[in-house]
Amino acid sequence: MLLQLHQQRALDLLVAHVTEIPIDTVVSQLQSSRKLLHLYLDVMFKRDPQLCKDFQDLQVCILYSSIDSRILLLLYYVIMLCISMY
Questions:
Q1: C-beta of residue 53 within 8 angstroms of C-beta of residue 27
Q2: Which of 71, 19, 72, 75 lies closest to 47 in space, CA to CA?
Q3: pTM for this one?
Q4: Where are the domains of the chain?
């Protein structure tokens, strides 16, 4: 509910208290809202990628592809550039 009312404050609180509110708990609570789940995992990944390692498949395959496809497009171009260099 707090995430829906004030996303940035809620995300800041969840990130600051990740030891008290584990990532898997937040992810399970946000399953019904892909956009909020994407925002949360994106913030957590930027803070510490290791914290999100169990959710990388979800983040890349489902969330980035459906919500922020620009990231996948950028990744595709980087991969194609690397391939063309060899």
A1: no
A2: 19
A3: 0.68
A4: 2-85
Candidates 40, 21, 35; CA nearest to 68 is 35
Task: Name the residue among 30, 44, 34 with its Cα closest to residue 65.
Answer: 34
Tokens of 51: 């914290």
Residues whose CB is less than 8 angstroms from the CB of residue 40 and which lie 6 or more positions away in sequence, other chains included: 3, 11, 14, 26, 27, 30
- Closest Cα to residue 59, out of 38, 34, 28, 80? 38
| Cβ burial, residue 48 (10 Å; 0-12/13-18/19+) | exposed
Give the model confidence (pLDDT) of 14-58 as tens digits. Answer: 889 999 999 999 999 988 888 888 888 888 888 888 888 888 878
Q: At what angle do helices 34-47 and 7-16 cross, to 10 degrees?
A: 50
On the CB side of 35, CA atoms within 13 Å amount to 3
Rg (CA), the chain: 15
